[in-house]
Amino acid sequence: MHTVKRLARRAVAALASASLVLAGVLVLDTAPAAAVRPPGIPSASTAQSELGALTVAAESHNSSYDRSLFPHWRSVGGGCTARQYVLSRDGSNVQTGSDCQPDSGSWQSDFDNTWTSSVSNATIDHVVALHEAWGSGAWAWSTSQRQAFANDIDSPQLWIASSSVNSSKSSYDPAEWMPPNIAVRCDYVKAWIHVKYLYDLTVDPAEKSALQSHLTDYCGTSGGECTGAHGTSRTITEGTTIESPITLNCSGSASSSSTVTVTITHPYHGDIRVALEAPDGTTRTLQSSGSGSGDFGTRSYTVNLSSESASGTWTLLVTDTYSGGSTGTLNSWSISV
């Protein structure tokens, strides 16, 4: 089953990632200028594409929900639980003992823009609440799959929140509750969409409508945009070009401010040339190769495609221009025209 495979991959990745960074005493020496938000929050254009890919369905099985069905705050490596790990990762001046429990520090609850130095008041919120996940499809998962979801430290699922705002959020979805801090609402809704997309969870009609409205209001996107995403990874072999297509079915011309977002793992970003081929065969260079070193990461490009029809197959062309260097991976890309 597609969902099972994806959940299994995420669980393994979470444990591997945590084991590399959790050992002994964790110290964060300087206070952040703003809240440290969890990893994996996508761009607005990617969130828009992912929202369009979600299955709309009424929630079900809510009466059979039990929190104990999601074993949470389990070890994620190094003897630390997911809760302890997030408190250390996203707090300020956090000091922990060998048991990984924070002894001191301060934590910002970005949902209500408050700080606390009391670890008991720094709760960890599941952005997609466990009860919400249950009714959206997790009722059909195995216990191990629900455990992976409840302890996912690699996606934007776990946030530090004050006990009061966590209580007010409860298991509400974005049609029913949004963070009081308006400044975080764009990232909050993008995180919600991304988590539901990663785990193949459904959205109900009111939730889908609210998510689109919030994307428009707080992230500046529009449901009228034509968007698409490709999440299958491809190896970039030295000295060769790979092609990754996305087919869009939409009307009218593309935008003069179309966006393309690309995520690549490669230790020398200067080796990589990125181009976009339009449905009519016209090719535009998004990034030329050069001599730069350092990982490519995630990069977004704004390009004038107003001369092109929006509908059709758009192809990303990624070339490793240097033979004898290092191979890489095209992890994903998205386009909004």
Would you give an account of this structure?
- This protein is of the alpha+beta class and 337 residues long.
- It has two domains: 2-219, no CATH class; 227-336, Galactose-binding domain-like (Jelly Rolls).
- 26% of the residues lie in helices and 25% in strands.
- Strands 6, 7, 9, 12 and 14 form a five-stranded antiparallel sheet that branches.
Helix content: 25-40%
Shape: globular
Mean pLDDT: 84
Order of helices and strands: HHHEEEEHHEHHHEEEEEEEEE
Measured by DSSP, the beta-strand proportion falls in 25-35%
Low-confidence stretches: 1-33
Number of folding domains? 2
Number of helices: 8
Number of strands: 14
What is the CA-atom radius of gyration, in angstroms? 21 Å
Main sheet attributes: strand count, strand direction, barrel closure: 5 strands, antiparallel
Q: How far is the N terminus from the C terminus?
A: 32 Å
| Structural category | alpha+beta
